[in-house]
Write a structure and sequence with these properties.
The chain is an alpha+beta fold. The protein folds into two domains: about 70 residues, Arc Repressor Mutant, subunit A, CATH 1.10.10; about 100 residues, Glutaredoxin (3-Layer(aba) Sandwich). It contains seven helices and four strands, in the order ααααβααβββα. β3 and β4 form a beta hairpin. α3 crosses α4 and α6 packs parallel to α7. The two termini are about 40 Å apart. It binds FE2/S2 (inorganic) cluster. FE2/S2 (inorganic) cluster binds next to α5.
């Protein structure tokens, strides 16, 4: 019973922090309705997607109807209303990339990650796989963009290799984070 207020406080703090970031973004763009698109872009950059409650908050703050904010958010393919994974993989399926076999790359990625056209994000929220129209780098076709880094002339095996590199990097980071917590116990045992 005594621990309940702490849990509530912590949840409230997370909520306050979330809206503090949104407030900073709104202030940066002068809280003008004309700045709606750059505001949404900045929020998406912060959260990787546009949370529904944040869109409602933006509408109230800009004094515009929520329908307008949601309308803009759903009109542009660039905006995401669903949370995405930590690493976003975009497979270009524009004409040049399609001709150069972008679909086998997509299939290989779905197979290795267990994702699909319908379930684009892995359950651990680590990866999201999307297809996009021409990325403007047709000379490099087929193109895959991972976390804003462009990879050209990618093969299905190459794409899986890139995923494995990220997995290895993530595993290393996990180990690096876990190690310092173990260190003091070892030092203490020498005292
Ligand atoms: S079609 Fe893929 S970069 Fe243009």
């Amino acid at each position: 019973m005594a621990s309940m207020p702490n849990v509530v406080d912590r949840t409230e703090n997370v909520e306050i922090q979330k809206f503090e970031k949104v407030c900073c973004i709104l202030n940066r763009f002068g809280r003008r309705p004309s700045g709606l698109i750059p505001i949404l872009q900045a929020i998406q950059h912060e959260y990787q997607y546009l949370p529904e409650e944040v869109l409602t908050y933006v509408a109230t703050s800009l004094d515009v109807p929520p329908a307008r904010v949601f309308g803009v958010a759903t009109f542009y393919a660039h905006f995401a209303l669903e949370p995405k994974g930590k690493h976003v993989i975009r497979v270009c399926d524009g004409t040049a990339c399609h001709v150069k076999q972008s679909l086998p790359i997509l299939e290989a990625l779905h197979k290795t990650l267990g994702t699909s056209e319908k379930n684009k994000t892995t359950p651990d929220m680590m990866f999201t796989v999307e297809t996009v129209a021409c990325l403007g780098a047709c000379g490099l076709a087929p193109v895959v963009v991972i976390d804003e880094q462009v990879h050209g002339q990618v093969t299905p095996q190459g794409a899986v290799g890139l995923i494995n590199d990220i997995r290895a990097m993530e595993a290393l980071q996990k180990t690096a984070v876990a190690t310092p917590a173990e260190q003091p116990a070892t030092e203490e045992s020498h005292v």
